[in-house]
């Protein structure tokens, strides 16, 4: 299969290239080595603000009846439930920092990231003997430019392959998701975003505006975000390690689906399946250390819809390519959602740098692969409390100490 | 999809060790992070920066702290070498390391001066002067905490 070979080739190429890029971009030009004969390890400055991040998430709803516009199909499909598993990864490829502005006091940064995402959606219809397993695999790049102490430009391009394992060969298809956003930080307590996105979150292909704002500091006790078409959320952070998030977020996708089980009674071997829901819930994030965090979330999935589209039906009836012949509306249902996030390596200091916190937030809000799963803002440094002083050990501070400090 | 997961895991296995940089002989990553976070809290309290001042101050300060950390880690690395191999290194090599000590100290000072010039443009004189006092006070505060901790734990061996 040439398509699959191409993906493997591309990924293998990246795998070989990434370590080289990582070595090339980690250090700076300070030449500190005393000489090769001494074999002393040269210390390098960490260049990246964003650390490589791997996140895994799982989302599942219960089973409920379908109320669709074709009774025969309702009876055939019977009950509907949904399961999603997702792995996403991003790593900085190149980071550039420079002093700019009229008196060289703005620290401008540019971040180029490589993203990978693999996702499986399992819409389960209890009336079908063999279930469909829809998948999506994408690699992409994103650029984030933070400048003038207040502005950020974000651009993401995520080409991805989708298909249905029911009949992989017939259903494989390439799509492209992309997002362009400008973020303006008015103050650490308020920022807003405008932009545009081409995405498939609503179970169809849409070109949508992106508008949003945040009220409250990202490292503070509480902040509120409205980010259309992603989420609305209220985040409460009682401690640096723990946060509670009350949210409403969209989830969905558009896939080619095999018509091997004749969901559409025409001659099509492939039809299209789109689904959409709004997950309203509460999420608990715990971050035991800088490299690992996990979350658990539950709530109600509302405004659930799924659609079947047939290109041949639409051609016959002079309709657009993505006009549905069947629209199902499953009832509201409880869901559970859980995930793990790993971050690796060291990053440059960003404490108190609210523009960088907005960079982190943008990067996490726009997850790799356009699935609207959020790995959490674990890289935003929360203020340390004085009681944490008690755990400091001598080895943590020895290079800070001078003999004059002792008398 | 199995292939995809395998590829992602391989990718993860490749990247993780490459990005895990811990300076030799330096503090543990979690310890260092904690001290950095405490320092930020300490300086924030001491300087009482306005929102506009903080917006400019922290990116500059962080940038130079990162650069200075490289120099200090290199100093630690060189000193470790001297300590471990003073008997086996040639006089030329030892002299090279001693010279390097001065070069690195000078580089550290140059970085401090560069930072000072930049901070002059974003902080009022009083706050800039207080910054250096706060940095010293922070070290003393840490030492006081360590002394207290050692006192509580009774007969502890010398941490060095």
Walk me through this protein's architecture.
The complex is a heterodimer of chains A (407) and B (160). By secondary structure, chain A is mainly beta. Chain A has two domains: 1-45, no CATH class; 52-384. Chain A is 14% helix and 50% strand. Chain A has six helices and 16 strands. Chain A has helices spanning 2-26, 71-77, 168-171, 311-316, 354-365, 394-397; strands spanning 53-61, 64-65, 79-100, 106-125, 134-147, 151-164, 173-187, 190-199, 206-215, 222-228, 231-239, 242-258, 270-289, 292-309, 324-328, 333-343. A 14-stranded antiparallel β-barrel of chain A has the order 1-3-4-5-6-7-8-9-10-11-12-13-14-16. In chain A, strand 8 and strand 9 (206-215) form a beta hairpin. Chain A is elongated. Mean pLDDT of chain A is 87; it is low at 22-36. Chain B is an all-alpha fold. Chain B has a single domain (32-149), classed as Four Helix Bundle (Hemerythrin (Met), subunit A) (Up-down Bundle), CATH 1.20.120. Helices cover 82% and strands 0% of the residues of chain B. Mean pLDDT of chain B is 81; it is low at 16-28 and 155-160. Chains A and B meet through helix 1, strand 3, strand 4, helix 5 and helix 6 of A and helix 1, helix 2, helix 3, helix 4 and helix 5 of B.
């Amino acid at each position: 299969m040439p398509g699959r070979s191409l993906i493997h080739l591309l990924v293998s190429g990246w795998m070989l290239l990434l370590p080289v890029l990582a070595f090339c971009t980690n250090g700076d030009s300070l030449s500190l080595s005393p000489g090769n004969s001494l074999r002393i390890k040269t210390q390098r400055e960490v260049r990246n603000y964003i650390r490589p991040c791997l996140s895994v998430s799982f989302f599942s709803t219960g089973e409920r009846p379908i109320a669709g516009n074709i009774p025969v199909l309702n009876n055939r499909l019977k009950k509907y439930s949904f399961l999603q598993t997702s792995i996403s990864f991003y790593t900085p490829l190149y980071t550039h920092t420079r002093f700019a502005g009229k008196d060289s006091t703005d620290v401008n940064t540019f971040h180029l990231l490589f993203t990978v995402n693999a996702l499986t959606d399992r819409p389960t219809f209890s009336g079908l003997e063999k279930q469909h397993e829809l998948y999506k695999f994408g690699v992409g790049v994103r650029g984030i430019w933070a400048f003038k102490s207040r502005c950020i430009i974000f651009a993401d391009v995520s080409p991805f392959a989708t298909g249905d394992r029911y009949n992989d060969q017939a259903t494989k298809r390439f799509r492209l998701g992309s997002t362009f956003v400008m973020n303006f930080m008015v103050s650490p307590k308020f920022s807003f975003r405008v932009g545009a996105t081409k995405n498939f979150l609503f179970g169809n292909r849409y070109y949508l505006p992106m508008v949003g704002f945040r009220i409250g500091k990202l490292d503070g006790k509480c902040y509120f975000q409205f980010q259309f078409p992603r989420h609305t959320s209220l985040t409460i952070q009682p401690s640096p390690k723990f946060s509670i998030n009350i949210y409403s977020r969209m989830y969905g996708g558009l896939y080619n689906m095999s018509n091997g089980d004749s969901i559409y009674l025409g001659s099509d071997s492939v039809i299209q399946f789109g689904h959409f829901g709004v997950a309203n819930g509460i999420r608990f994030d715990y971050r035991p250390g800088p490299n690992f965090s996990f979350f658990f979330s539950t709530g109600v999935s509302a405004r659930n819809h799924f659609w079947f589209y047939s290109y041949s039906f639409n051609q016959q009836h002079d309709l657009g390519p993505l006009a549905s012949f069947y629209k199902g509306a499953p009832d509201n249902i409880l869901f559970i959602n859980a995930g793990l996030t790993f971050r690796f390596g060291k990053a440059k200091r960003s404490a108190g740098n609210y523009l960088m916190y907005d960079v982190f937030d943008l990067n996490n809000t726009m997850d790799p692969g356009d699935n609207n799963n959020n790995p959490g803002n674990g890289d935003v440094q929360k203020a340390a409390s004085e009681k944490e002083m008690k755990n400091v050990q001598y080895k943590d501070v020895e290079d800070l100490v001078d003999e004059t400090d002792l008398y | 999809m199995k292939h995809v997961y395998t590829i992602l895991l391989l990718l993860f296995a490749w990247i993780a060790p490459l990005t895990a940089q811990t300076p030799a002989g330096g503090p543990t990553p979690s310890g260092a992070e904690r001290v950095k976070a405490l320092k930020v809290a300490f300086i924030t309290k001491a300087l009482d920066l306005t929102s506009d001042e903080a917006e400019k101050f922290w990116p500059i300060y962080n940038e130079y702290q990162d650069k200075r950390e490289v120099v200090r880690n290199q100093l630690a690395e060189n000193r470790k070498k001297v300590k471990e191999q003073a008997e086996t290194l040639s006089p030329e090599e030892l002299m090279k390391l001693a010279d390097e000590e001065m070069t690195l100290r000078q580089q550290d000072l140059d970085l401090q001066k560069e930072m000072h010039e930049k901070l002059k443009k974003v902080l009022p004189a009083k706050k800039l002067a207080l910054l250096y006092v706060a940095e010293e006070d922070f070290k003393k505060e840490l030492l006081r905490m360590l002394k207290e901790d050692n006192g509580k734990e009774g007969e502890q061996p010398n941490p060095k």
